[in-house]
Amino acid sequence: MKILITGGAGYIGSHVAKEIIENTDHDITIIDNLSTGSIKAINTLKDIHNSLDKNSSFDFIECDLKDINTLESMIKGKNFDAVIHFAASIIVPESVKDPIKYYSNNTINTTNLIRLCVENGVNKFIFSSTASIYGEPDEMPVKETTPLNPINPYAKSKLMSETVLEDVSEAYKDFKYISLRYFNVAGADIKLRLGQRFPNATHLIKVASETALGKREKMYAFGTDYPTQDGTGVRDYIHIDDLADAHLKALDYLVKTNTSDIFNCGYGHGYSVFDVINTMKEVSGVDFKVEIAPRREGDPAIIIADNKKITEKMGWRPKYDDIRLICKTALGWEKKLSLE
Ligand SMILES: NC(=O)c1ccc[n+]([C@@H]2O[C@H](COP(=O)([O-])OP(=O)(O)OC[C@H]3O[C@@H](n4cnc5c(N)ncnc54)[C@H](O)[C@@H]3O)[C@@H](O)[C@H]2O)c1
After folding, report:
1. How remote is the CA of residue 25 from the centroid of ligand 1, in Å?
2. Tell me: the pLDDT tens digits for 14-56?
């Protein structure tokens, strides 16, 4: 297959590209504007591709999704079978301050990409969605059918894209999509070749590994009065390589069933903020400073995926459901970054 990956220089896209290179013979074209992604991730992917001596091709094109002319001529010229769409802006507080950026980059650019796919016969589309579209759900674990209630422009911009996909697949019967709703993605490539690069990350495990290495003087635990075992928020952390594998399964599923669908991606159980911090302290051997801060608006007490649908329908089986391993790979990657 010929696959277009948008945002493949970023955290999740680069791990999915790696998974495709290592496990399939699909031709890959990555487009990315390198706004938060890195050319270093692309170079690592090229090295992995070259080292495997594959017949498949690997191309990178630096391009912004809003550059519709370039995008259109590329899609016309390359005969893609599928698109995996990661490119987006992803920082929730920034989306509150600058919603136009989020609706433009996430919803408008995605809609244009979908239009170009429909017009050019690219009929398989995998979309990076997010558990944040559930908002603060009443039922736990969260099912795909749990009512959606996004509470910030980032999550709303993602739900709008899901809506566009749903309506387009209804109107154009050949066009099929899978939306993967990621829970808390964390960790790094098991062999530490790739990881999360973008500075000023807000993800708890990245922040904890930066603090363990002294890149931050201290970190914060936001809210210790939630109705949870230790009072801190509980999240479903999924290792990046398991998430990457879910994309391969989604692609197979789309090819086999030719059916559009939506799947949660999580392990179905969670860890509290204190669990994560204690695990990071243990694996790093550093008793770093943690300051207690008030709850952040819109942070629910617990968010855990019901993952029955993806395990039963796609046969997805996580391999790295281990919080120590997730913290270890995040820390190992962070150490590697310090040496660059
Ligand atoms: N990281 C998470 O925990 C998480 C959770 C849920 C959903 N997601 C979704 O997963 C996807 C990937 O997230 P990530 O964590 O890898 O983020 P990231 O910032 O590392 O990756 C996004 C990539 O897209 C590129 N990009 C952004 N706008 C672009 C544009 N207009 N044109 C071309 N390239 C563009 C960036 O340069 C970057 O390489 C996003 O769609 C995000 O909404 C992420």
Report:
1. 24
2. 999 999 999 999 999 999 999 999 999 999 999 999 999 888 9
Residue 200 has pLDDT above 80, yes or no: no
Distance (angstroms) between ligand 1 centre and the Cα of 282 equals 30
Q: Is residue 198 part of a domain?
A: no
Choose the residue to mutate in 36, 154, 236 for probing ligand 1, maximizing ligand atoms within 8 Å of C-beta: 36
Residue 196, domain member (yes or no): no
pLDDT band of residue 309 (cuts 50, 70, 90) is very high
Catalytic residue ranges: 154
My answer on whether 142 and 217 are in the same domain is no
- For 227-265, give the DSSP string: SSSSSS-EE-EEEHHHHHHHHHHHHHHHHHH---EEEEE
Q: Ligand 1 pocket: which of 39, 40, 61, 86 to mutate (most atoms <8 Å of CB)?
A: 86
CB 206 within 8 A of CB 197: no
Same-domain pairing of 139 and 151: yes
Identity of the amino acid at 338 = S
pTM for the complete prediction?
0.97
Please give the tally of structural domains in the chain.
2
